[in-house]
Amino acid sequence: MNKPNQIWQRAGKDLLDSLQSGPQGLTTKEAQQRLEKYGPNELQEGGKKSGIRIFLEQFADFLVIILIVAAVISAVLGDVESMVVILAVITMNAILGTVQTIKAEASLDSLKQMSAPTAKVVRDGKTIQIPGRDVVPGDIVVLEAGDAVCADGRLLESASLKTAESALTGESLPVEKEETPIEAEDVPLGDRKNMVFSGTFVTYGRGRFLVTGTGMETEMGKIASLLKTTSEKKTPLQVSLDNFGKKLSIGILVLCAILFAVSVLVRGENVMSAFLFAVALAVAAIPEALSSIVTIVLSFGTRKMAKEHAIIRKLQAVEGLGSVSVICSDKTGTLTQNKMTVRQLYVGGRVIPAAQADFKDPIQEPLLRAALLCSDATVNEQGEIGDPTETALVRLGEDFGFDELDVREHWPRLGELPFDSDRKLMSTLHQFSGGYMLMTKGAVDVLLDRTLLGPGEREEIERVNQSFSEQGLRVLAFACRRMETMEVSLEDENNLLFLGLIAMMDPPREESKQAVAECIAAGIRPVMITGDHVVTASAIAKEIGILTPGTEAVEGAVVEKMSEEELKEFVPKVSVYARVSPEHKIRIVRAWQEKGALVAMTGDGVNDAPALKQADIGVAMGITGTEVAKDAAAMVLTDDNFATIVQAVKNGRNVYANIRRSIQFLLSGNTAGILTVLYASLMALPVPFAAVHLLFINLLTDSLPAIALGLEPHNDRVMHDKPRPRSEGILTKPFLLSVGLEGLVIAAATIIAFHLGLNYGGQAAGATMAFSTLCLSRLFHGFNCKAAEPVIFTRKFWNNKPLLAAFAVGTLLLVAVLAIPVLEELMQAVALPWTLGLAIPGLAIGSMLVIQLLKAIRTGFGRKP
Ligand code: ATP
To answer: Are residues 579 and 700 in the same domain?
Structure first.
């Protein structure tokens, strides 16, 4: 046979040599050099657009292209000025759009960086955590359940390792992995059992692998070119705005066509200038920017949320957060501090306070030893590493006379059955005076079922467990058994000998109580879902206000027995689910969704991924969560804190409100323009605007306030309302009605101005008046859109700095057009006497006051804002 040459055929040692690596891993220096040589471990993004491309895309609108063509034709026919102004306005608008798009993309990119996976690698002989993109060929990567595999490689070591490879091979079940070489030269991807691949996840066990390929050199990289074309998905809000925009566009186009026909056929106007006006009106009136405004405002929102510890992984989540009506949260670490301290022991028929624990006491000693040995945590001068439940146990041993290392050396670990939240047990196998000893710890009820107990003993233990739990303590039971062989399987966790109970306290987070209260005030139902005991969970839930009179605490088993229909009617009554398995979580989410709720659900483990995907907003824990959970989630909490979810909901509601403000501003302003044109046409008056006037307002002076309104400062009042119904769109009847009404008021001011100008100096003066008044009224209208109630004469009027700046810039542009003769001529404006000049701000402010008055009437004068 030939010398084996495929990675899976060769021995691990051989591969280590050829990649110049070893069991100690690479040195930091070598890794640095390799990073430069091979490049970062990431897939090249095909979709990244250059600034120029984004800029050019701003013109890729059918109507804009027609407008440019029409402008060029009219220039050929003699109207060069219009063309210059139209091109200038469109270009400035495109620059504005480009800057906003690039900014929005940058904030989304930085979010992506924040939620990028990390890897545990061995460097200089030590295991360290590094960003996945810094992994290089020759690195040794350590894997455990829940990790994302960050590169392709060959296993060097494995313990019951299983990975989920569906992203790569389509195989839906986890694949068992082991390190032994495979003889065959031709082995399909799915059968390369001694290799792991980038883009897959560890679902069980542990292992170590040698990195053989990174970045585009991985199997994922090979198919990445196929994935490049997937475009950014639009959010539901964008889809509904796009649909609305399409319908509106058709209406506007029909209207523009009629106006064009009337101008040419009835009034005998110049065909080219009438056409230019009709197209300009269409460009100005069709709100094609709506969906990009949504992207911009949402991405700005994500930046604020990231600062407040919530990283958004899907833009849709920001929108969804605003209408969350149920938050299902884990207990441990999310509502509580995840800082456990042992309070009580129960051993030899006695309850002993932790302070009196004593390993010299032969009755206590086996329990304390098991607590230390059956644990993966370590506690030393550098700190505590591992699960807080386990560090608490190790600390107990240390505090009362055990030396962790000593004990571990004396009774070395030979095997293990890792903890999983379904089984709620964990066992370790140790060398023990010439034989073997299995030590098991876990949930009391589960362990007692597997323990040999004398008459009455079980009742007594359960009574003690009950009394510990009522104090909100988390109780673990310990047991052991002698073993004949070194082989352990799940079957061995039976016929155990009871050692005792250890009860620990995990106090609620200080902010939980208030966050829960805030939730309830906002019409959101908080629900606790925990693996812990029902009595412990209830005690904590009562303390922080989740378990309220009239609602229940139940065990997951209850959920299991119910049909979908029964569960749907049952969920509203339940505030606490205890001893829950990940499958129960999915059913609970679904039942709430059937009831019409929009559900946020937290999770951290490998098994939580399906529930996180099922929830409308899957929330993963950033600190304790596995990569699998983070990958399935829409939002990651960098502080694992329940209060952060509530804060994110508040932000979601505010962002939604801001999007509404922008849309209201744009639509009502456009309505005013159209109504004025329609009025003039119906009354057989001259055209109230030149084409360039409409473009100037819509593409320049209006864009800035629209974006500024999207940045309106957030306020807490949004948390006094009920959640927005799941099915309610932004364009409700009352919303559209107020858009129409406000448009009408601004149109009235513009029409008055138009008449004043007409009377003074004919069409040119009339158009100058109408244009200036519409422009300024719309700038003032920005302040109207800040709130449903009047803001004038309140501090709120001044609290949005970007809006003030947008107002100032818009006003300056308008003044420049009216005051600088060259611009005046280009913009087809004429000089006005000072009386008319004063009428412009007069009418604009007047329109704002009328709209403020309407708001006062609608919200009822006396009601406190
Ligand atoms: P939550 O779901 O709110 O985070 P939890 O941490 O109690 O709560 P799990 O981690 O699923 O949920 O734990 C379920 C039960 O398993 C615990 O109540 C405890 O009895 C037991 N348990 C937890 N950690 C361990 C462990 N390291 N070893 C053995 N048993 C454990």
So the answer is: no
Q: Which of 337, 416, 476 to mutate to test the pocket of ligand 1 (most atoms within 8 A of CB)?
A: 476
- Domain contains 306: no
Give the residue numbers spanning the domain of 522.
311-337+509-640
Task: Enter the pTM of the model.
Answer: 0.85
> In the beta sheet, which residues pair with residue 311?
636
Q: Residue 384 pLDDT more than 80?
A: no
Q: Which atom of ligand 1 is nearest to the CA of 330?
A: 3
Between the CA of 441 and the centroid of ligand 1 the distance, in Å, is 11
- Residue 482 to residue 179: CA distance in whole angstroms: 30
pLDDT at 594 over 90: yes
251 within a domain of the structure (yes/no): no
835 CA to centre of ligand 1 in angstroms: 79
Q: What pLDDT sits at residue 865?
A: 41
Residue 292 falls within a domain, yes or no? no
Pairing, β 378-380 against β 383-385: antiparallel
Same domain for 481 and 430, yes or no, is: yes
Q: Please confirm, yes or no, whether 147 is among the known catalytic residues.
A: no
Looking at the fold, whether 333 and 352 belong to one and the same domain comes out as no
Q: Where are the beta strands (DSSP E) in 767-816?
A: none
Ligand 1 pocket residue status of 165, Cβ below 6 Å: no
Tens digit of each residue's pLDDT (9 = 90 or more) over 651-679: 999 999 999 999 999 999 999 999 999 99
Q: What three-state secondary structure class fits 107?
A: helix
- The amino acid at 413: R
Domain count, the chain: 5
CA distances from 533 to 5, 496, 762 (A): 54, 21, 84
- Within-domain flag for 258: no
Q: Which amino acid residue places its CA nearest to atom 12 of ligand 1?
A: 531
Q: Are residues 449 and 555 in the same domain?
A: no
pLDDT at 864: 47
390 CA closest ligand 1 atom index: 27
Spatial distance between the Cα atoms of 865 and 857, rounded to a whole number of angstroms: 13
Percent of the chain exceeding pLDDT 90 equals 55
Taking residues 68-84, what's their average pLDDT?
Answer: 85
Residue 600 confidence (pLDDT): 96
- The average confidence (pLDDT) of the chain is 89
- Residue 494: what residue type? N
Burial class of residue 456 (count of CB atoms within 10 Å of its CB; 0-12, 13-18, 19+): exposed
Same domain flag for 496 and 520: no
pLDDT of residue 504: 95
Q: How many angstroms does the Cα of residue 385 sit away from the middle of ligand 1?
A: 17
Specify whether 706 is located in the same domain as 806. Answer: yes
Neighbouring C-alpha atoms within 13 Å toward the C-beta of 579 = 20
Count of beta carbons in the 10 Å neighbourhood of residue 385: 13
Q: What is the mean pLDDT of residues 225-232?
A: 51
Does an H or E element contain 140, and which? strand 140-144
469 & 541 share domain: no
- Evaluate the CA torsion angle 219, 225, 227, 233 in order and state its sign: positive
627 and 558 in a common domain: yes
- Residue 424 Cβ contacting ligand 1 at under 6 Å: yes
Q: Give ∠ CA 541-546-549 in degrees, rounded to 5.
A: 100
- Residue 775 · residue 702 · CB < 8 Å: no
Of the three residues 190, 215, 240, the one that is the final residue of a domain is 215
Q: Which of 128-137, 378-387, 435-444, 752-761 has the lowest mean pLDDT?
A: 378-387
Q: What spacing in Å lies between the alpha carbon of 342 and ligand 1's midpoint?
A: 15
**Residues 254-299: pLDDT tens digits?**
999 999 998 899 888 888 888 888 988 988 888 877 878 888 898 8
CATH number at residue 455: 3.40.1110.10
Which is the catalytic residue, given 79, 330, 387, 640? 330
Q: What integer pLDDT is reported at residue 288 of this predicted model?
A: 74
Tell me the pLDDT tens digit for each residue of 330-368.
Answer: 999 999 998 899 999 999 999 999 988 888 889 998 999
Over 50: is that where the pLDDT of 231 sits?
no
416 lines ligand 1 (CB under 6 A): no
